[in-house]
UniProtKB/TrEMBL annotation:
It holds the Pfam family Cupin_8. Residues 88-268 form the JmjC domain. It comes from Salinimonas iocasae. SMART domains: JmjC (SM00558). This is Cupin-like domain-containing protein. Gene3D superfamilies: Jelly Rolls.
Length: 333
């Protein structure tokens, strides 16, 4: 396991350009240290809650509740037919005050509010705590709680996480390590994305022997208030909140056009259509995918007239619509 590379904080006007040039994780110490929310958290947990309360929109949020015996690990139950935590809808400000009530108890149950839209929950917060990513039109979400361990998972968008309170430990793996992470079900997941089934605090190398290979490629970092971490698209990341009040704000964005849709859907459909074919047919389809989808020769379709290339040419929104309609008709057959 290696430390994540530390990069100098770029000038504000160059931040997005810098991030778009990165293909591996990078830590930027103190990138958002001047945010008022970071300064409030530096005073006390109470000062942080008071600061957030200024923006509170009486929003009701999803909160996760976990018994203390699980040591913050939000995961499946033992039968893997459900989860070891419960979900509750409650006002955001109520969740914050619950965290304050538990802050001095080392054995407190875990409470976690995650993936909550900053714009909806705390309107005006981003005006006081800005970051120069507007051209990417990112989705900003907040994550706050006491002790938590979120299983390794990936996100399709690029991701910049900014720690505003507490301490976060992040362990990252490149996309090609998926086969060594022992990923669980695709359709029954704790929070929408498939997760590694390995307990990072006490990995069972007899049950998950290839995880030792994943660790050889892992990168890790501890983030303090004001620090930021860039997580490129598709990198697996395991995140731990280590103090009584941990908060981060993250920014997700994709540079691909929105009309391309969710890449995961192509994977899910391929599983249905190809996974159970005889091996020789699957190998043939692998060759087809390598040529049509993953081929690097930009001129491999030049023999087809531009007007007839369809999705093999430039994929405008109109081209996408036309080919989706064609595909829909084929799926009916």
């Amino acid at each position: 396991m290696q430390p994540v590379a530390i990069a100098p904080c770029p000038d504000e006007s160059e931040l997005l350009t810098h991030l778009r040039q990165q293909s591996t994780p990078q830590v930027m110490r103190g990138l958002v240290a001047q945010w008022p929310v970071v300064k409030a958290a530096g005073q006390s947990n109470e000062a942080l809650v008071d600061y957030l309360a200024r923006f509170d929109n009486r929003t009701v949020v999803d909160s996760l509740h976990l018994d203390a015996r699980y040591d913050g690990r939000m995961f499946y139950n033992e039968q893997m037919d459900g989860f070891n935590f419960s979900r509750k809808r409650q006002p955001f400000i109520t969740a914050l005050h619950t965290l304050l009530e538990r802050q001095h108890s080392p054995d407190a149950d875990s409470l976690y509010v995650g993936s909550t839209s900053v714009a909806q929950c705390l309107p005006g917060f981003l005006t006081e705590n800005p970051i120069a990513l507007d051209d990417a039109e990112p989705l900003a979400t907040l994550w706050i709680g006491n002790k938590s361990r979120i299983a390794a998972h990936y996100d399709a968008p690029d991701n910049l996480i900014c720690v505003t309170a507490g301490k976060r430990k992040v362990t990252l793996f490149p996309p090609e390590q998926v086969e060594n992470l022992y990923v669980g079900p695709l359709h029954i997941t704790p929070a929408g994305q498939a997760v590694s089934l390995v307990d990072f605090h006490k990995p069972d190398f007899e049950k998950f022997p290839r995880f030792s290979q994943a660790l050889e490629h892992a990168q890790t970092v501890e983030l303090l208030p004001g620090d930021a971490l860039f997580i490129p698209s598709m990198w697996w990341h395991h995140i731990e909140g280590q103090q009584s009040m941990n908060m981060l704000v993250n920014f997700w964005w994709r540079d691909a056009p929105a009309h391309l849709g969710r890449s995961e859907n192509a994977l899910y459909h391929a599983l249905l259509a190809l996974k159970s074919l005889p091996d020789k047919e699957r190998q043939a389809w692998q060759s087809m995918f390598n040529f049509y989808v993953f081929g690097q020769d930009q001129n491999r379709f030049d023999h087809i007239p531009d007007a007839l290339k369809g999705p093999l040419g430039e994929q405008s929104e109109q081209t996408q619509r036309q080919f989706r309609a064609w595909l829909a008709n084929h799926l009916k057959q």
